[in-house]
Amino acid sequence: MVMALHSLLVATFFAFLTRDRAVGRIRVFVFLFVGMMVGAMALAWVMYPYPVQGRL
Amino acid sequence: MATMATAGEAGREADEAVSTRSPWLPCLLAWAIPGAGHLLLRRTSAGLVFMAVVLTTFGFGLALNGTVYAMDPEQPLSYLSTLANAGVGPLDAWARVRTFGDLRYRMPDSRSDSVAREQILKRVRQRYSAGTHSYGRTFLLTAGLMNLLLVLDVFDYCIGRKPHRSPPERPAAGSS
Description:
The complex is a heterodimer.
Chain A: H1 2-18, H2 22-47
Helix pairs in contact in A: 1-2
Chain B: H1 2-16, H2 24-32, H3 36-40, H4 44-63, H5 77-86, H6 91-100, H7 114-128, H8 133-159
C-alpha cells in the first residue's frame, strides 16, 4: 500500500514535470506507475530466495 | 508537408514567446514553498499539482515516523542525504526538530562529544520502534528531491531553456 502510494505520487510528479499536454501526462503517468509497481514486484520475486540476515 | 511546416512554425513561435527573467526570486520561492515558483510563472495547474504532491509526500513521511539525516563525518553519504532532505525548504526544519529535538544539520563528533552524539542517536532510535520509519525516511527524501527538481525546472523556464509550451508532436511515420 505504501509502495503504491509512493509510486502514485512520483508518477504524478514526473508526468506534470515532463509533459505539458494532458495526453502526454497520462501516458507518462501510466508508464511510470505500472513500471514501478511491476518492477518492484519483479525485484521482490527475484530476491525472495535470499534470506534476510542480521537485524533490520 | 504543409502540416509539418505549420507545426514547426508553431513550435518556433512558442519558443520565441518565452521571456527570460531573473531566476533568483522564482527559484527561492520554489524552494521555500513547493510549487510556488511555477505559480509565479503562471503555470497554475502544474504549480498546484506540484504543491499537493510534494506536501503530501512530506506529510506521509512525517506520519510514517520518518527521520531526516544530519551530516556525519563518519558517514560521508549522509552529506548527500542531508542535502536531499533540505531540498524541501523550511519545512525541513520541522522534520529536524521532530527527529533530533533541535534544528540540527550536523551530528556531533564521536571523539569530542560522544555524550551528545549518544543522546541524539538514542532519540532517533526511539523513532525506529515504529517499524515504518524507513518508509517515512524514503518519503521525506523523495519530497526533498522532487522539490529540488522543481527549483531546477523553474530555473530552466526563467532563463528560456525550457519553452512554456512543448512543441507539437511529430506526425507518425508514414502519414502524409
